């Protein structure tokens, strides 16, 4: 598993990655905590070689869902939250 927990991949470094493409393998899980843009250079390169990827949108979504459940004691409506998140990011100019 490879996790990018830096801001590399966000503006002003949106077209950069700390990971050399040669380090990526199909058996690797790659997560980037950057959620805007949804597909960072790292995620694009990992997808291109067939690695399993998890975008920062998923991290942000599930952090929000956990908070929702803690505060409301109700099950989070993940699909509703995902749609709202993606809609908001796309209207803000994010590459979602």
Question: Could you give a short description of this structure?
Answer:
By secondary structure, the protein is of the alpha/beta class.
Strand content: 5-15%
Radius of gyration of CA atoms, rounded to a whole number? 14 Å
* Number of helical regions: 3
Record field, number of beta strands: 3
Binned, the helix content reads 40-55%
Notable characteristics:
96 residues; alpha/beta; 3-stranded parallel beta sheet; 3 helices; 3 strands; 42% helix; elongated
How would you explain this protein's 3D organization?
- With 96 residues, the protein is an alpha/beta fold.
- Helix content is 42%, strand content 10%.
- The protein contains three helices and three strands.
- The protein has a three-stranded parallel beta sheet.
- Strand 2, helix 1 and strand 3 form a beta-alpha-beta unit.
- The two termini are 23 Å apart.
- The mean pLDDT is 92.
Strand and helix layout:
Layout: E1 2-4, E2 29-32, H1 41-49, E3 52-54, H2 56-72, H3 78-91
Parallel strand pairs: 1-2, 2-3
Helix pairs in contact: 2-3
């Amino acid at each position: 598993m490879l996790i990018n927990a830096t801001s590399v991949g966000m503006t002003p470094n949106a077209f950069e990655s700390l990971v050399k493409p040669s380090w990526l393998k199909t058996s690797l899980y790659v997560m980037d905590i950057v959620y805007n843009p949804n597909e960072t250079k790292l995620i694009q390169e990992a997808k291109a070689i067939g690695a399993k990827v998890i975008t920062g949108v998923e991290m942000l979504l599930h952090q929000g869902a956990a908070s929702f459940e803690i505060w409301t004691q109700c099950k989070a409506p993940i699909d509703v939250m995902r749609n709202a998140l993606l809609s908001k990011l796309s209207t803000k100019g994010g590459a979602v």
